[in-house]
Amino acid sequence: MKTLKFNDTEVKLSFESYRNNGTLAVEMITVPDEDLYAVITVNLCCPLQTDRLAFVDENNLPGIGAWLKRNKIATPLGYKQRSGFCQYELYSFNRA
Asked: Matching Pfam families, A to Z (predicted)?
């Protein structure tokens, strides 16, 4: 994956899987030191989650949805799910 800028930090994305259900987990890694910057997705154990569909954590990463769309990494699907006091939108990720 190519290097991108998020909040003035050079990052790249790492596509992983959640251990309990194998669904998509997306991590943002800093470049060049390879530290974990953030986990973009949340695991809501929803049947809609797959290896390409994941809920995005806009609550802890304000602006991440717009950043994903702008960089053609993911597209919102218009479905939201609540967990506690937070709401998460489902995105389709382009892993190419």
From this structure: DUF4313
How far is 78 from 93, CA to CA, in rounded Å? 14
Q: Are 21 and 55 in contact (CB under 8 A)?
A: no
Residue-number span of the structural domain to which 84 is assigned: 4-93
Q: Give dist(CA 46, CA 25) in Å, integer.
A: 13
What's the whole-number average pLDDT of the chain?
95
Task: Tell me how many domains the chain contains.
Answer: 1
pTM, entire model: 0.93
Q: Which two tokens stand for residue 33?
A: 């030191």
Cβ–Cβ < 8 Å for 39, 27: yes
